[in-house]
Design brief:
Elements (H helix, E strand, L loop, with lengths): L1 H11 L10 H7 L36 H4 L7 H8 L2 H4 L13 H11 L4
Helix pairs in contact: 2-6, 4-6
GO molecular function: electron transfer activity; heme binding; metal ion binding
Protein name: Cytochrome c class I
Keywords: Electron transport, Heme, Iron, Metal-binding, Signal, Transport
Length: about 120
């Protein structure tokens, strides 16, 4: 019985990177983001070009909430997956008002797409 429980726990703990992701499908998911974000310039939200590896709240030409600036987040697969599930749950006090993306595959695809943006 213990081996089965351990195996089940290991299966549910599969990291986001293990989910097959498709950048082209992520480009379609990005349509949900376009109301506030652009790739190459700030809009309602900060631009998302070269997001991976960037410290949250670090663009000098965008006014972030103190909560996000002080979050200590550096954007990678895991931090983006958590953020995209609900920004206000991840960083209370953020200015980003977005319910989140519930579908794990959509999040993985979107993250894969964001990796392509320079």
């Amino acid at each position: 019985m213990r081996k089965w429980i351990l195996a089940a726990a290991m299966i549910t703990a599969v990291p986001v990177a293990a989910v097959a992701a498709d950048a082209d499908a992520g480009k379609t998911v990005f349509n949900k983001c376009k109301a506030c974000h652009q790739v190459d310039k700030n809009a309602v939200g900060p631009h998302l070009g070269s997001l991976i590896g960037r410290k949250a709240g670090s663009l000098e030409d965008y006014k972030y909430s103190d909560a996000l600036k002080n979050s200590g987040i550096t954007w990678d697969d895991a931090s983006l997956d958590k953020w995209l599930q609900g920004p206000a749950k991840d960083v209370p006090g953020t200015k980003m008002i977005f319910a989140g993306i519930k579908d794990e595959g959509d999040r993985a695809n979107l993250i894969e797409y964001l990796k392509t943006l320079k």
